[in-house]
């Protein structure tokens, strides 16, 4: 039986650290009923479980650098072949380098998917810093808050399950600088990569998370409709 896909092609979230990729990928994934595949969350999960991969990734993440392309691509390759990705999936934090973007194209071709649609969330530098320093994540369910513009109802506790809200180890100022640097050098050029393929949607990332989520859903639906009409 043919699988009915919620997404006609995978979605990628580009955008600097703090642009809202995680929050938006999560909201959209819930709305569309597809998995959010976050490479950062996968590494943090490995680190929390103390696996060999987690041990290696933790040291790299704490410096704000990028984990090697081979490791990340291998992890994504395994993840997107799982059954829950058959109806579509949203990649959050991947690809981050040109090599990763090229290898993703081959992976998608191998697994029967058309090229991905890349959504670039554009946010100014001052907002990025506020979002990164104010970010808090639920230790239980992963819900993302911001003490400045998306605070929880009770300080330090998740609205959904009361879980403790944690400040990410790499959301400290010295590490943030390094992460933004890695973004400028390695990831920003991917905006052009996807533009050249006619697969780029640019979305202003300002405003609150719910407004942005509604804007994004419109963008994704019109891209799907345009794709279906081709
Ligand atoms: P994120 O949660 O997306 O901000 O990712 C946190 C950290 O995980 C990054 O600063 C990198 O060290 C590592 N990481 C996540 N995704 C990738 C990727 N696609 N390539 C290389 N490193 C990654």
Q: Using the coordinates shown, work out and report the CATH topology of one domain.
A: Rossmann fold
Helix content: 40-55%
- The low-confidence runs, each spanning 5 or more residues with pLDDT under 50, are none
Major β-sheet profile? 5 strands, parallel
Q: Report the top-level CATH class of one domain.
A: Alpha Beta
CATH 4th-level superfamily of one domain: P-loop containing nucleotide triphosphate hydrolases
Mean pLDDT: 92
What would the principal axes of the Cα set say about the shape? Answer: globular
Structural class designation: alpha/beta
Q: What is the H/E order?
A: EHEHHHEHEHEEEHHEH
Number of continuous helical runs = 9
Count every beta strand, where a strand is a DSSP E run of 2 or more residues.
8
What is the radius of gyration computed over CA atoms, rounded to a whole number of angstroms? Answer: 17 Å
Distance linking N and C termini: 24 Å
Side by side, the strands of the main sheet go 2-3-1-4-8
Say which molecules are bound, naming each kind only once.
adenosine monophosphate
CATH architecture annotation of one domain: 3-Layer(aba) Sandwich
How much of the polypeptide forms β-strand, as a percent range? 5-15%
Keywords:
globular; alpha/beta; 9 helices; 3-stranded antiparallel β-sheet; 8 strands; binds adenosine monophosphate; 230 residues; 5-stranded parallel β-sheet; Rossmann fold
Task: Tell me briefly what this model is.
The protein has 230 residues and is α/β, with parallel strands linked by helices. α1 (21-32) packs across α9 (209-228), α2 packs across α3 (52-62) and α4 (69-80) packs parallel to α5 (98-110). Helix content is 49%, strand content 13%.
